[in-house]
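=== RUN LOG ===
request id: a7f3
mode: sequence -> structure
chains: 1
length: 178
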Amino acid sequence: AANYSFNKAHAACYALIAYQTAYLKALYPTEFMTSVMVSDEENMERIVMEVSECEAKGVQVLPPSVNESLKHFTYIDDNNIRFGLKAIKWIWDGPINRVLEARESLESKQFSGLEEFIQVCWKEVINKKSLQALILSGAMDEFGERKHMFEGVPEMIRFCRKDEQKSTTNQIGIFDES
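=== RESULT ===
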C-alpha cells in the first residue's frame, strides 16, 4: 500500500501554527488579543468572550468613541485596547470612513459635541439606526447622557431634514437671519 503522508504534513503545519500562536499570546497578549478581536469584529458573541479574556489578563478594552476609536480594534498600549467602530452593529464602512475623515478635518481633531457631529456627518452617516447604534454603544457618551440623546434622535433627524430642505431650496423663514 502507498504511504499516505498528507495527514502528517497537515499535522506538522498545525503544530507549528499552534506553537507560534501560543508564543505570541504569551509574550504579546495585548497585541495578540487586538488582532483576534479585529478578525472577529463582526461576531459579537466572540467579541464578548474575547473582552472577558482581556479583562481576566488585566487588559482593559476601552469603550467605542467617535472621538477616539478607529475603524478596527486598536492597540493603545500594553494595558489598553480601544473598541473599533466596525464592531458596532448598524455601522458599516461608509459611515465609519466619513466619521474618521470628518474628525481628521476638524482643527481640534475631535467633535466638540453632538451638534457638531451631526452638522459635519449628517448626510453620509446619520440615519436613525446608525445614530441610535452609536449612542447605545457608548460611542457618544462624552456628548451627554445616553437616555436623553437616544430619546432626542427623532427630533434631531427632523431638524436635520428641515435644515437640509431649507439649504437646498434657498428659502428662509420669517425668523431666520438674513
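=== NOTES ===
The CA atoms of residues 152 and 173 lie 23 Å apart.
The longest strand covers residues 74-77.
=== END ===
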